[in-house]
């Protein structure tokens, strides 16, 4: 027999709902701004940002895991971006089944143009709403939840 669900208290439900609403609204607005400002999708931006943070080149599966995406989603995303000249896929000489995703010069230019505008929106919509102490607390809480999630089954 299954144990009864551990329902959230009204306070827990309110905290969860506020967090989800804030996250969805923030990501939605940032995604629309990236699309409008740079004509890149939010997914294009994420892939290029992670690639350039890593020096412009990453193993396909490492990038997939970093973004918490399914392999098929990453494959389709990389394919679309490659057709537009933003990334290239290179074979991995050490591993015949592995591949690298590489930011092309056009991809680097696209992220370099988009990043300053994106960070302005992040600052305006998120950073400026909080004090440094609140940001520090949020970072600690986020790190705690992330560490907790690592200990939980997927």
Automatic annotation (TrEMBL):
Pfam families: MarR_2. Gene3D superfamilies: Winged helix-like DNA-binding domain superfamily/Winged helix DNA-binding domain. Residues 1-147 form the HTH marR-type domain. This is MarR family transcriptional regulator. SMART domains: HTH_MARR. It comes from the Bacteria.
